[in-house]
Amino acid sequence: MLSLLLYGSEQIIDFKIGWFSMTNDQLLHTVILIPSLEPDDRLVPYARELEQAGFVHRVIVDDGSSEKFQGIFSRLEEEGCVVLHHDVNHGKGVALKTGYTWIQKNVPECEAVLTADSDGQHTVPDCLAVISRLYDGEDALYLGSRDFSLPNVPPKSRVGNRCTSVIFKLCYGKWLPDTQTGLRAFRASELPFMTAIEGDRYEYEMNVLISCARRGLAMIPVTIETVYENGNEGTHFHPIRDSWRIYKLILGSFFKFMGSSLICVLVDQILAGMLATWLLPLMGLADKGSLIWISGLAARLISSILNFSLNKAFVFKMKGSAGHAAVRYALLCVLIICLSNLGVQALTAIGFARWIAKLLCDTLLYFVSYNIQNLWVFAEKGDRK
Q: What's the pTM?
């Protein structure tokens, strides 16, 4: 139940919605940010309801809406909202970062930021639920998560979100039931981090999730109402163009990781052949056993150094010092070799052919290696704030 007690011009708020409670002081230190492109008439009453619920700081970013929509933004200003304008459409990512920059400069008392969409999907109680979890919980990104199993969810939204959640889990080790939610909350101390994340349009929100996963900022889903009005026709999400941008981000690092691995396998094989055939015999090493061991180890050492360098610079784009990462990478290599040998022994012991056992173990460990390198070896936790 939501109770609002209004006495004169002073608003005294006592929120009791399900399992959470809010104080007026917390809401006074919260900024709700709404990026908007050519909104309909629902946005004005929505902004009014947010104010009645205690959200005094309401920032709307007009992302290049045409002239016929300017009346809506004028009415929002009359309602006490701050409206920031883009002359042309730049995309949701830019609109959010415009808002973040304004908040940092103009609301020094801000303790938390809540972002919401302007198309009516995020109810006022849901906004309160998410921001309440933030004030009661740890330093994290809180995500309003919809239930995509409900019958009112459009099939393209259900399938698209489920696929994205599965791929995100495989690549970044975190299950997020709603990766495309625009209802998100984080502490104001994270504003510089959020502003620095790359991305101009819808892909920005996915980049935020990837950056949080890589830098160790927890992501906590909060169940919200699942609202899809008119089949979600009001959305400006382009299914093909924006989905391509999102999946390119999620899978981009993995495909680069595959490319780096392929290059290093070729280098390893070529170097091993050159050492065994020409260089080592020229140095007086002709024993076949010695040739195999020395050439194999030397080639693996060089290819591993190359793999580390490529992954650091081009795959995971780590900007910090390589020292600790190199130690972690070496430990990971030892771990992967040990697990591979143990796995092959275990599978052959129960009847698998050795080559099948090797293929199964190394394929599984390849994905394990990617996740560990992504989230541990090349993580830059210290750069988050």
A: 0.75
